[in-house]
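Task: fold both queries, return tokens.
Query 1:
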Amino acid sequence: MTDLHAKRPRLTRAKNKTHAVIQIAAEQLFREAREIQEREIRTPKHNVTDATQLGDYRLRKRKEFEDLIRRVRGNKSVWVKYAKWEESQEDYARARSVWERALEVDYRDHTLWLKYADFEMKNKFVNDARNVWDRATQLLHGVDQLWYKYIHMEEMLGNVAGARQIFERWMKWAPDQQGWASYIKFELRYNEVERARLIFERFVDCHTKVSAWIRFAKFEMKNGEIARARNCYERAVDKLGDDEEAEELFVAFAEFEEKCKEKERARCIYKYALDHIPKGRAEELYRKFVAFEKQYGDREGIEDAIVGKTRFQYEDEPNTLLEESCGDKQRIEDVYERAIANIPPAQEKRYWKRYIYLWINYVLYEELDAKDVDRTRDVYNLCLKTIPHNKFSFAKIWLMAAQFEIRQLNIDRARRILGSAIGMAPKDKIFKKYIEIELQLGNIERCRKLYEKYLEWSPENCYAWSKFAELERSLAETERARALFELAIDQPALDMPELLWKAYIDFEISEAEYERTRALYERLLDRTKHLKVWISYAKFEASAMDEGLQESDLRESDYEQKRKSVFERALSYFRTSAPELKEERAMLLEEWLNMESSFGEVGDVDLVRAKLPKKLKKRRQIETEDGPSGMCAIYIRTGVVYLLKRIETKLLAAATDSDIAITCRYEEYIDYLFPEETQTTNLKILEAAYKWKKQKIASEDD
């Protein structure tokens, strides 16, 4: 052992600890790590010299493929490689057998059929290829690519009759328009116009669409058959005149007549289309008609077209601004009536939001412009009857109707409207406005009944409870207000309980009922121990000291003791029952310190400062859904420290015995150390690394 120690080199301590002139970069570390990696192992090449070696090679490869197929039978790429290897060995029977076995696994994959047929065609097995195509198109007749490939093969072989027969078989399955178009182009390539015309007849019967008829008519036009093309358009109008795409058909028909120099026919088609197509789908048609009239029409025709287009725009979206600017009351009311007659089809409020403003504009016009009170009232009543109140309602309409009656000095009718609103569709806005109206009229009993209805409909509404109690307090009904607050806080569910408790406490403080206020705080602390509750309680005791010294015989020390008692209880709770809430505990102490400082010489600041914690900056591990984040590494080599982010594992593995590599995934946070706690020693990562290094050097020196 002594000899071994004598042979080992002795590590000397670095006397000069300043940074070196030549620094080791991260690039150099990566380069060293890459150099020590093992090289990729490549399979050696074999040269086959005789038939025996060739047979052994084939046997070995087939065994490898068969073993691989047994493991991953559903992997199609393995089958394809196997079949192509057999093809490369010119063993076509075996290759064909592999293709057939692959199809047994999944015959629905059309790519297998395509590669199988390509194999047969490439090796000039035409009949076998036809057999494959027949089977493929019979099993997967919905895959157009198989039909195209089959037809292309027959056409390349010059078998036009066979290709036509395949097209006929395909057309029985009613393919899409592109399939029919391919059949027609095939016939036209061989100048079979009559056959193509017959195929077009079958095409429009199979696909009764505007695009199919337009394609048929253009085919006839291209062949100079104008009468036949016009006949196609007329038949299409008879069948598809009411179709959603009829606009495209009429435009194409009119443009056809325009090309044939039949301007009157084109004008008649445009006018017929504008009379029969719904306005919402005729925008393009109007644009084409105006352009046509500008090109071929006279001045009167152009003006009629432009006026008709403008009228179409207003008719498409009801707008009364044009009529109101003219001042014709009858036409204005007629437009409004036509607009409100378009009731939304679905009883969902999002569809009615824009519709309801038609009614609002209508009633405002009748009241402000037409000055017709009776008609305004009738419009309001009709609007309220139209809205499905069992599904949804609009508080705005109810309130506008009631305010209209108030402006007419008809209070009873306004009350009936608001009462109906509460009975049919109660809402917060309706209750608030109704109570506000009655309060302005001085009807206190009605306000109380409305508040009772309000709370009966929504007992969890803290706003209603607070306002009801505020009303009673304004009437000097202290006991009523207190009873309302008691009922409110006893409710099983409240939307904003913190506001209700605050209102109750403020009420008792305003009444100078300090004992009741303390009891309220104690009841609130039984329900929640939130930090804000403790601070509010302590602030109350501090404010009660100023008021209490003037009105009671208690000494200042008694109030001071009560205030400190609240803080002590809060600290005891956070220390024993919720030790994890250190931040809240620190905030409580800071609030206590500020309060004691505000009292000047009377405050006991030293007592609180002794309890203040120390702020410690610590680190903790980060865990996310995709694993630890913020990864870094500290790499120490020969006394030089490097910080590398997102370092690879291979680089850490390259460290020598004298190196240190430490990975960490941490984030910094603030912790609090209170005086009664004992601080545990938490050395930092670098300090631990240096300590370990020193211990190792010392042991080697010994």
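Query 1 returned. Query 2:
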Amino acid sequence: MGRKNRTRQRAHDSRGLFWQGWGAGYSEIIKENKLFEHYYTELKIVPEGEFEEFMEAMREPLPATIRITGYKSHAKEILHTLKEKYFKEVQDLEVDGQKIEAPQPLSWYPDELAWHTNLSRKILRKSPLLEKFHQFLVSETESGNISRQEAVSMIPPLLMKIEPQHKILDMCAAPGSKTAQLIEMLHSDMDIPFPEGFVIANDVDNKRCYLLVHQAKRLNSPCIMVVNHDASSIPRLYFDQDGKKDILFYDRILCDVPCSGDGTMRKNIDVWKKWTTSNSIHLHGLQIRIAVRGVEQLAVGGRMVYSTCSLNPIEDEAVIAALLEKSEGALELADASADLPGLKYMPGITSWKVMTKEGQWFSDWSEVPTSRHTQIRPTMFPPTDPEKLANMKLERCMRILPHHQNTGGFFVAVLVKKAPMPWNRRHPKTPAEGNPSVPDTPDPSEVKKDHVCGPPPPKKMKLFGFKEDPFVFLTEDDPIFPPIQAFYDLSPDFPKLNVLTRTHEGKKRHLYMVSKELRNVLLNNSERMKVINTGVKVWSRNNDGEQFGCAFRLAQEGIYTLCPYIRARIINISVEDVKVLLTQENPFLSKLGDDAHTQAKKLEMGSIVLRYLPDPQDLDAPQCPIDLCGWRGKTSIRAFVSRNECLHYLRMVGVEVFRDKQGKRNDGSTETQEESTEDAEGLSQEADLLEQEGEETEQNANGTEPVSSTCDGINREKVYIKNVRICSFLYSLRL
């Protein structure tokens, strides 16, 4: 057999195994690990008399949990649709003999914006009775209105107490569910298009950064930047403040470190057979280095949330104790017990032991033989000084056990910075005062003490992965602005300096916007950090538009960022107009209501904003504003909205669009050739790509449309297709 045929055969075999895995696979793994049971029985992290219940819960599948994105003005409408339609339809159903329980809100999540149910992915995908609910979840997830996220994963962002002006660092951000929460909280006030704060989301894995970009891009925020660095040596950044260069300290830091993951056994079944104590022992040092780097960059008065999906105190309390000891009073554990009413948790422990994978126990560092000193470190043990231990208040840590609220296992601690870290009390020089290439961490030999972890050693920045296009900010007098300004009648306060493109040469295909603060960070740190993606697309070039006065049409992704500045090209529409625009391909202007028709006739051809404003007297209509990008043609009009967003807006105005197996929609229309091809053939192609190249296929995050070789300098169309379609496919599989 030739090499090509052998490759094809292997791909065919692996695809068969891949699809079988969704119905079987993990069921063959025996959910037992005697070493695990022995270890946690001895550590007594589970209350007396509850260990059997704890183990039974660990063997049960994890309930599905969804979160409605809280920052969008449409959140209440989605919640209303879920409660009044879909949850009522699935209540008391039986599928394959299993009774479907009505979804319940998470008692501790604010405003009923998070729900859990016993619906498994297998039931959701295969039951005809739940097909509408499944399609609803998939399309709303792709539109960024719903996120499928494990319940305990939602806890750390809530404990950060984020405000719109906060500068936030997410140190180990991929795949991005917590990052999405941070962005939502930053945009809690939708009347502010550019909050003063921002989120810098970092991950060490270049390929996982692109999954992170996909997750963040669904939220269309100008205040997010994705970077690619080792979190334990993430560079110190600088920004201009009052005319001089200053060091950037973050108000909030999320330090969700890599861990052994034994709290995820309910969903990651292979942990059962792979678990040993050596996993935690090997990760302990890295976790401390990442956490130390985090508190170094935290502003005085700021909060850092440290979290793991591990139950092991070596990864949890031991890391916190090492941080507190090293800080010499600069850090303290915050009491977060009242922050999430309804959340059940166990307080942190103050006594624990270390066990090797062979089952040998050590209660103190003094018991560890010299031959094991390179594996087992002093920081893995609790402090021996009773007074020092009491002052740490480790009981303020929070450990979530699976059997208490039917969740995964989790650990979280909130640290508040009271003063600079001891080795940073001599303020480090800014690049203006010294050589910017000099590391901003001190020589570890100057601060190292016995049995205490010092700051991470400086590392030379290495850049791997796909070479990104540059981020080029436009100037206020750029010739691209006058026609845009005149066509859309932009208000005088429109921030032109916040507009960027991704090419130095040739025609600019897309224009993006970032907040003023992120622009400041980008301009001052271009040589110090590797930026994967930032900005939200607001305009796309349309060559035909030049004859109508403007070569750039509006992009739906950035419509809510731009709309506060647009004073022309706006058509106010009714609920019935929304239905017409989203169910008909290119309706004639006469199809609109009289008011919208009159407005449309007054406008020249070109890009437009279609705006629905709620009527407080009509409670059956959506009670939130809707802005759609559109095009006013010679005799017709159309909305430029993606398919999933189209479904979302139709549901909001009372039209339920359900696609059957033939691609027909119950609104009377049929999917286009492009849509049906994408559904029927796209999934199998995506499966092929996944099997051949793995889940972490290298992807491009240069926007949401293919980039041709004649526009932004690099031909990435093929990379883009893999990028976005694989990410979309992954999320559809999860649902």
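Both queries returned. Flag for query 2: The CA atoms of residues 104 and 115 lie 5 Å apart.
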